[in-house]
Amino acid sequence: MQIETLKIFCDLVETESFSKSAKINFISQSAVSQQIQALEYNYNQKLIIRDNRNLIPTEAGKMFYQGAKEILQLYEDLSSQMQALSNTISGTVKISTVYSVGLHELPPYEKQFLKDYPAVRVLVQYRHASQIYEDVIHNIAHLGIVAYPVKKSQIEIIPFKHDRLVSICSPNHPFASLSKINIHDIQGQKFIAFERGIPTREALERIFGEYDVTPQIVMEFDNIETVKRAVEIDAGISIVPKMTVKHEVEHQTLRVLEFENQTFERPIGILYKKSKKFSPAVQKFVDFLTK
Fold it and tell me: Is 252 left (phi over 0), alpha (psi -120 to 50) or beta?
């Protein structure tokens, strides 16, 4: 029995999903099923049962899970100790994040980190904010990076940075000749919004409520790139993190309007599973982001 088999079993118990366990371990669902069947055959015990589409460990499965977790932790500790002896940092850092962070915030950090630690792989996957918390809880990702991080019982949060929010418009919009606007100038304007449930949308609704502003929402999208494309064709204005429109400003496809007399910021946080011990590679990456 290999250490990978123990990890696959633990991932299956924690995610309650063959597909998620397969994704975490970069194998097919059938390969996960074969590994579980091999374990059950080897010990002559049923370890996992299906109950109304749920995956539930049997009593033997629970016992095996606890023992496997202890072995995996010992293996991780040993790997860390051996890396410390060789002064070599290697391994994989798996990150779940939203488009606006992954495409516009992380690249400079990734580039320098990989230059300093070439033996490390950084894998970034783009997810909706709510899914990122699940990825961290179920060990699909070592780290989650989200805007407006929310405290949860199984999650720890490390502050990362704050982005200034700005209004954006097309070069053809009447606002384009301005450098600043007041938040009240958005009243009644055609507005390109993020979909409901997205943290930035919820934050903007709080701001609009505080200042008694009601824009005319004409389109809603689930990611920053589509929002920008809609603003570029002058379908409306929007409010986005300033870092996310650097390219468009340089190429003069969008105009940025700062807010006068008001400052609005978007906090970004790094999520990790509570009580989770970082590998040397993950710890170095966290240190790199927060130094």
Answer: left
Does residue 155 share a domain with residue 131?
A: yes
CATH number, position 114: 3.40.190.10
The parent domain of residue 204 ranges over 163-265
pLDDT at 139: 81
Place of tokens 């449930």: 197
Q: With 90 as the cut, is the pLDDT of residue 174 above it?
A: yes
Residue 167: pLDDT band (50, 70, 90) is: very high
Q: What is the CATH number of the domain that holds 38?
A: 1.10.10.10
Residue in the structure block whose two tokens are 């496809």? 253
Angstrom distance (rounded) from CA 234 to CA 227: 11
Sequence letter at residue 161 = K
pLDDT tens for each residue of 180-235: 999 999 999 999 999 999 999 999 999 999 999 999 999 999 999 999 999 999 99
Both 261 and 275 in a single domain? no
167 and 213 assigned to the same domain = yes
Q: In this structure, which amino acid lies at residue 160? A: F
Dist. CA 239–CA 193, nearest whole Å: 8
Per-residue pLDDT tens digits for 271-282: 999 988 888 899
Does residue 179 sit in the same domain as residue 250? Answer: yes
- Judgement on whether residues 179 and 259 belong to the same structural domain of the protein: yes
